[in-house]
Amino acid sequence: MTSSLAATSSDGPPPRTCRHVFVTGGSGQTGPAIVSELVGSGHTVTGLARSDISAARLEALGATPRSGSMDDLDSLRAGASRADGAVHMAFGGRFNDPDSVTRREVDARKALGEALVGTDKPLVTTSGTLVMPAG
To answer: What is the pTM of this model?
Structure first.
């Protein structure tokens, strides 16, 4: 679903197209900055929320929560397919089980990609270095 906001003045900014973006990890460490930027730019954001706390954080940022987790591949596919694109920032798993973390990440990216393949809709993925105290 695409909406657009067109400038009304000929000397104003060029017409701007707003999109519906599905995000994972929108309530995590770095996700809120992305969600805030998208919402502030006029985009509609639906964010994957695995808890009531995550859902409340997304709502406070102006996004619509979608209940689910990285293990719920059908929910990932549905969220991505109903949007104009997706941003995947979620991280899930236990640090002491890197095989599980890798499996979950690969499965989530595959599900999101399968939902968008052939649509010309973008899928943006992120990665990062964990912030941990020294020691």
So the answer is: 0.82
